[in-house]
Amino acid sequence: MKSTKTNASSLYRIVLLILAGESIFILPFVLARIFRPTFLAVFQVNNFQLGTCFSIYGVVALLSYLYGGAIADKFSPRKLMATALLLTALGGFLMATFPSYLVLKWLFGYWGFTTIFLFWGAMIKATRVWGGTTNQGRAFGFLEGGRGFVAASIGAIGVFIFALFLPLDIQSASLPERQEAFRFVVLFSSFLVALIGLLVFIFLKDDHEKKSAIRTHDPSLTNITLVLKLPSVWLLMIIILCAYVGYKLTDIFSLYASEVMLFDEVQAAQVGTFQLYLRPIVCIAIGLLADKTRSSLWLNIGFATMLLGAIAFVTGGISANLNFLFFLSLIITATGTYAVRTLYFAVLQEAKIPLALTGTAVGVVSVVGFTPDIFVGPIMGYLLDSSPGIIGHQHVFVMLSIFALVGLLASVRFSIIVRQGLNYSK
């Protein structure tokens, strides 16, 4: 009976982490991604202005990773995550008023603080605690895979709500009518984020963390210095950076389907949906496999798979009427990308990074690892615009190949260090 209660407790903990881990990004990212044309129209901004909002978010987030990770080692992840979700939801209620462009920029900067400084390190630490010493692959596999499924599901609900409140003749809907329909989507999302914040505060207990974590009273700067002395942390910076470049470049597949494979817009969107549903399948499978062997081994395999898929696109041989080859190469590339994304925090346990320094370590590696939020979009856009058609896409996949190779080399080196017990500074 006790084992059954423990399993039930363990299950709802990871479910809460999954719900929180994706819902926190609904308002700043998911809505704009799914409803991009509508988003531009109802807020009366263009693509460059929306991109500026994302850049402001990225800059604030970059500054938040380091000390946001440090506070995750000093305060309860439950309280930090719940506070972050509630504050993020408040921003959504402001968003529902369709503020001016100036206010919208401030709002995205605000979300950069609430979603990263207060949330990111706490979520990763709580997930690591949930996984214990032997199930890190499963923990992060469930987290990443579950987040993918939640994103797809919330997106589908949002589309349903938007269509429900639009006139029957959608094409002739006026701007006020579209704003009113989209307002319900934003309000639904805001209430959902707030509700999940309350659930996290009530049900995500800290007892496992208290038993497992070694409390530290050292100043944050001291903790950062301790983390930077670990060679594995420097390698993880490179690994996450390369993995995140791969994740950002998966946005190109629907465009490739349209411009190179000559799919129509509906078929291209279906390619994006197909890719989205690969994420939970791959992440959960890789997480379970990693726990039966070593996470670092599957990290190596993931980068090698990503590299193989990218090279297939670099050759230029994947073109119209070769649909099977296109989907096969897409699956290979996406599988490798999602695999490394699943495992780059799961290896913290294998590297024997102290649990009490998890938040600090996550913050330190994230400062470098997530910089692709700033530079990948402009570079990808330049490559595609300067060489229209398949040539531009080949250039993008050359970029992916380079980062996949660098990531593979860093991952192999990481494996050697942790296996030989060399994770210390001489």
Please tell me the overall pLDDT. 80
Query: Uncertain runs with pLDDT below 50, 5 residues or more?
Result: 208-219
Distance between the termini: 49 Å
Q: What's the Cα radius of gyration?
A: 21 Å
The CATH topology of the largest domain comes to Growth Hormone, Chain: A
CATH architecture of the largest domain: Up-down Bundle
Q: Could you explain how this protein is built, in words?
A:
This protein has 2 domains: 1-213, Growth Hormone, Chain: A; 214-426, Growth Hormone, Chain: A (Up-down Bundle), CATH 1.20.1250. Helix 2 packs across helix 8 (136-164). The protein is an all-alpha fold and 426 residues long. It starts with a helix and ends in a 7-residue tail after the last helix. The chain is 81% helix and 0% strand.
Short recap of the structure:
The chain is mainly α and 426 residues long. About 3% of the residues have low confidence.
Question: Any key phrases for this structure?
Answer:
426 residues; single chain; Growth Hormone, Chain: A; 2 domains; mainly alpha
Strand-helix topology:
Blueprint: H1 2-23, H2 26-34, H3 36-43, H4 47-72, H5 77-95, H6 101-117, H7 120-131, H8 136-164, H9 175-203, H10 207-212, H11 220-228, H12 231-249, H13 252-259, H14 265-292, H15 295-314, H16 323-343, H17 347-350, H18 358-369, H19 372-386, H20 390-419
Helix pairs in contact: 1-7, 1-8, 1-9, 2-3, 2-8, 3-9, 4-6, 4-7, 4-18, 5-6, 5-7, 5-9, 7-8, 7-18, 8-9, 8-14, 12-16, 12-18, 12-19, 12-20, 13-14, 14-15, 14-16, 15-16, 15-20, 19-20
